[in-house]
Amino acid sequence: MNRSGKFHALLATARIANVPSVVSNVWLGVVIGLFIGRVKGSEPLWPVAGSLALAGILLYVGGNFLNDWMDRDWDQAHRPERALPGKIFQPGSYLTAAIGLMMAGVGLAALGNWRSMAVAAGIVACIVVYTIWHKRTSWAVVPMGLCRGLLPVMGFEAFYPYVDGIWPAACGLLCYIAGLSLSARYESLAEPPKLTGMMARLLLLATAVLMAWGSHAMALARLPVLIGALPYLAWTSYCLRFRRRPVPRLVSGLLAGIPLVDWMVLLPAFLMMVSYSDGNMTLMAAACLLGPPLAFILALLLQRLAPAT
Known about the structure:
With 309 residues, the chain is mostly helical. It has one domain. Helices cover 76% and strands 0% of the residues. The chain is built from 13 helices and no strands. It has helices at 3-14, 19-36, 45-70, 72-78, 91-109, 114-133, 141-157, 167-187, 194-217, 222-242, 247-256, 258-273, 279-302. Helix 2 packs across helix 7 (141-157), helix 5 packs antiparallel against helix 6 and helix 9 runs parallel beside helix 12 (258-273). The radius of gyration is 19 Å and the shape is globular.
């Protein structure tokens, strides 16, 4: 196996196409924390936000390495082209990488504060639970959704010490991951049950409702909140209508749309911040406006290099 083949295998293991959405999720929590705490920005904002974003990436990539290590026997029978069944790497190297990456992620989260570190440790726990149970029960979508939902909580806790303002966004991401997973599950069946399909769509709709609720907690105006929901609703509807087959195309499209969940809050937040004149808030506003759509576009581009799932 040449170096380019090994590099591509690592990108596939890391699910590199989903990494931009991890950064977007953490940034969502940072912004909500600043809004709820009525903090206009301070010198440590960007170093702390950067360290938490990197922590989120390490936790996510480490979780994927652990998942592939745990699934190596199943992949041997069903996905022999993957890295471990193909003997591109040794299983022990994946386990070592997973442990090292997740430990580093928890350590970086501590640069925020002990609360961010505790949330990062909770993400690791959810990763382990999901990795053990995801082949055994469909309920494993709950810890998988929590892995996503806790990313903004990790960013939030670095700037605000409670959870009353972040829980709608966390639950919104959990619902999105659950709806995405159910969509993939029922679309792959020859005769998908109508109830399951309806439940998947209700969860995807609940995501929009919860994100709007979170915007209300930030005292954002109604019209900007409605505007922020339009890209999410448009892309999700497009995926469910025009990307239903084959199923991996549907899943990849919905995964790329994760930053649009964040944009439902960050876009109206930008519209409120444009009135501030100091440079720190201007940069923060630009990150709210441009971060999620750039993460969305980058995810679609990276899917051409390696599969998102």
